[in-house]
Amino acid sequence: MARPPTGTIHTHQLADGTRAFHLRFAAAGERHRVVLHELAGCACGCGGGWNERSARTELGNLLARVRVGVWTPPTPAAHRRATAEPSARVPTFHEYATYWLAAKIDGVIGDTGGISQNTIHDYRTRLSVHLLPFFARYRLDEIDGQLCLDFKAYKLAQSRELRDALDAGADIRDLQGRRARPLALSSIRRLIDLLRSILDEAIEDRHITVNPARSRRMRLRVPKPRRTFLEIDELATLLEAAADQDRPLTVLPDRELGLTTRLVAHLLDQGKRPHQIARQLNLARATVSWHLRRLGATPGRGYQGRRIVCELLGRSGIRASELCDLRIGHLRLHDPAGAHFDIPDAKTDTGIREVQMTPALAQAVTYHLGRLRRAGLPHGPSDYLVPNTAGHRLNRQRVGRLVREAALEASSRHEARGLPPLPHITPHSLRRTYISIALIANNFDVKWVMSQVGHADSKMTMDVYAQLEQRADRRHGENFDRLVDAVRVS
Q1: Which domains does the chain have, with CATH numbers?
Q2: Assuming Cys at both sites, which of 271, 284, 332, 423 could form a disulfide with 228, CB separation 3.0 to 4.6 Å?
Q3: Per-residue pLDDT tens for 465-483?
Q4: Half-sphere exposure of 57 toward its Cβ, with a 13 Å CA cutoff?
Q5: How far is the C-alpha of 35 from the C-alpha of 37, rounded, in Å?
Q6: pTM of the model
Q7: Residues 6+ away with beta carbon under 8 Å from 87
Q8: Which strand (E) or helix (H) includes residue 309?
């Protein structure tokens, strides 16, 4: 049996004070070396910005590829052309992209007066991880059609290679230690779109005369994703499943439980975490875990806020990012019939969108606020309505996982009743579900629904409307059967 591949990292101090990490390992009977540089925006192809931790992660990824036999030695790519001395007049892509992003943030470029924090994070990620490692050292006038095509081919090949490695069983991690995922075609197209936008502004500033990223060959056709929304009974089952996942532990009276076990159960009912229970009762964490096992409780399932996440998404149609940013001070619950909350929205004239709450949603929010207080989590006006377990901002990825876990439970309940499982559900699916039900409940008042969900145009609302018409009007199938049956009788 062949010995599993191993590797080492040698760190070298360079003349400019930065470090270079030499990854050495064996593959196919030969020794190889990959060099990663600490200098940000390095033009050698490594992308720069590496440190000891990320270099160790990259070495592990290289060895994982070697183990499954999909690693190939890097070859000089066509895009690593030697460049001339930078022109004093034409900036490099790195310089101009830095200016472009700052101008977008300040509102100098664009007509919205600035961009949101989520958009800033998205632009920075696409630039630092993908575009700058490829284009950083090129002057704008050196970026031609062939170089842009090389970038497109490089990203497609990179995605394909990672997908093949994962399919072969390689355990490849990103810099945060999470399982790596290959870029989808839609993500690569967004990279090309950002490149086009930056070079368009370079034309406005007269650094270049033509945008090579707008070539017909740079187009990338992406299959239209299948957009789903739930039927009303499916949404009800989903909300029920999420509520049950949050349901407090009920101690049965016929069980012979000691005082400490009952105290642990009582604090768990209030939403306390195991470490909080241990601190309050002055017990060791292991002791609390023993009592929880005796109760049959599974607080390690995690987040106690699944119901309110699904309720807000399904009964108000807000976006996942808007849910994460929603603060308690945005709520207006003084009038149950007119309960609403405010969302900062640059698409409205006032910059604030007022979202109406149904009575059931207002009741769920009120219950959730009480649960935050009982759990000892922050519940002031400036605190998040749906925080994470530490009381800080919940991220969108976690929201997606909470929705998926509730959907899995709801699907199992549907299958137990002999019904088909729920379709693939995301937070955006619940947004579309809200639109579909709100249209029916409000006599297809498209304008009101658009104001609720924050649509600047009616494209998505009308798309759901068209799907809804096909679902709502079942008479076409009945008429078809009636014609066929009439022929049979005759």
Answers
A1: 1-75 (no CATH), 86-223 (1.10.150.130), 306-472 (1.10.443.10)
A2: 423
A3: 566 555 555 555 566 667 6
A4: 14
A5: 7
A6: 0.62
A7: 139, 141
A8: helix 306-316
